[in-house]
């Protein structure tokens, strides 16, 4: 039977890379997004709003997926609203697909906030989690929209009989425009502004992040794990961490990033210096840079998500992720982290998103 994929969030940083991986493996691939026009060539676009159940059912009327990959979310002002909106989107999607009876597997992408807590509550549980983070660690006693999304998948699986997998990446490194969490492109924009203005490329985060061990997730490697879990019997009904497979310190990587752009690096100097404040007044400057260099995106805020980069780099603990669970089951992919950034920068330059 042919594998038919429905990628939810096909225009995003994970979804777009997943579509390319699926197509390379000869999957019939549908890409759902509110505006799927930027989906990869070969993807069958589905324009739909997950918060509109009637419109969603109409958009999916002719789509009969065997595998569903949920890679999107909508940021809200409070965690209660994150739970209501993002849990509701998963429920609406799976309710719309239920009558078809074609779905064999559903994969949900969440992240390390499963272990760390929501964006504004990394340490509110009273204790910081033990690292490396492992899938066996229990849920925190905190509101968390990731838990709500998981519970919607579990309930629908019990109702409809499909298998599932949960995927928990660290910070995603890959190309996307208009993405809500995009550290790689944010740092590329920041370095470009530093080069244009003569500013130092200042590390914005905490001492714990500067000196501690960390890891990240290349968008290409999570795409591979999603396809692996969807087609591997031993991976059914399991949650998996997913990172590149190496560890690094920002004190080592920061200078390498600066060297790629030809700017002067400045490390942690005893003070957290949020990037959101650093870039707060640079929208007009970026518009001018884009005009002078013929770039295709002049809106700074569609490229940079400084708020999220600040949260990741400002954490009060080192964060690294255990990958033993999927390794034992046969997932062997590896990606060098410095190459993740350099490959992204090359792509951004080739696509005229940075000069």
Automatic annotation (TrEMBL):
Residue intervals of the PRISE-like Rossmann-fold domain:
66-355
Q: By its UniProt entry, which Pfam families does this protein fall under?
A: PRISE (PF22917)
InterPro entries this protein is in?
NAD(P)-bd_dom_sf (IPR036291), PRISE-like_Rossmann-fold (IPR055222)
Q: Which residues cross the membrane?
A: none
PANTHER family reported for this sequence: 3-OXO-DELTA(4,5)-STEROID 5-BETA-REDUCTASE
List the protein's name. Answer: SDR family oxidoreductase
Q: Which organism is it from?
A: Hymenobacter nitidus
């Amino acid at each position: 039977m042919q594998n038919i994929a429905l990628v939810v969030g096909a225009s995003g940083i994970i979804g777009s890379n997943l579509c390319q991986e699926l197509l390379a493996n000869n999957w019939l691939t549908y890409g759902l997004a509110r505006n799927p026009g930027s989906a990869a060539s070969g993807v069958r676009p589905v324009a739909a709003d997950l918060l509109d159940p009637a419109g969603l059912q109409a958009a999916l009327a002719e789509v009969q997926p065997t595998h569903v990959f949920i890679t999107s979310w909508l940021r809200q002002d409070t965690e209660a609203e994150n739970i209501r909106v993002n849990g509701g989107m998963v429920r609406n999607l799976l309710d719309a697909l239920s009558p078809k009876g074609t779905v064999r597997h559903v994969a949900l992408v969440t992240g390390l906030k499963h272990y760390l807590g929501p964006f504004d509550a990394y340490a509110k549980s009273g204790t910081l989690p033990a690292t490396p983070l492992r899938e066996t660690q229990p849920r925190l006693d905190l509101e968390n929209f990731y838990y709500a999304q998981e519970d919607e998948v579990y309930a629908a699986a019990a109702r409809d009989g499909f298998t599932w997998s949960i995927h928990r990446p660290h910070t995603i490194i890959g190309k996307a425009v208009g993405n809500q969490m995009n550290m790689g492109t944010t740092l590329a924009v920041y370095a470009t502004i530093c080069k244009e203005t003569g500013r130092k490329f200042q590390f914005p985060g905490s001492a714990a992040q500067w000196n501690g061990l960390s890891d990240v997730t290349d968008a290409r490697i999570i795409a591979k794990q999603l396809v692996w879990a969807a087609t591997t019997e031993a991976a059914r009904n399991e949650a998996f961490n997913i990172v590149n497979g190496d560890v690094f310190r920002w004190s080592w990587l920061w200078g390498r990033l600066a060297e790629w752009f030809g700017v002067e690096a400045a490390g942690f100097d005893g003070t957290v210096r949020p990037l959101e404040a650093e870039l707060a007044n640079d929208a007009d400057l970026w518009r001018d840079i884009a005009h002078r260099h013929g770039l295709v995106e002049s809106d700074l805020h569609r490229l940079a998500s400084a708020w999220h980069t600040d949260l990741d780099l400002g954490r009060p603990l080192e964060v690294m992720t255990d990958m033993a669970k999927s390794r034992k089951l046969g997932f062997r992919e590896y990606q060098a982290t410095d190459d993740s950034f350099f490959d992204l920068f090359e792509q951004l330059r080739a696509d005229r998103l940075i000069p």
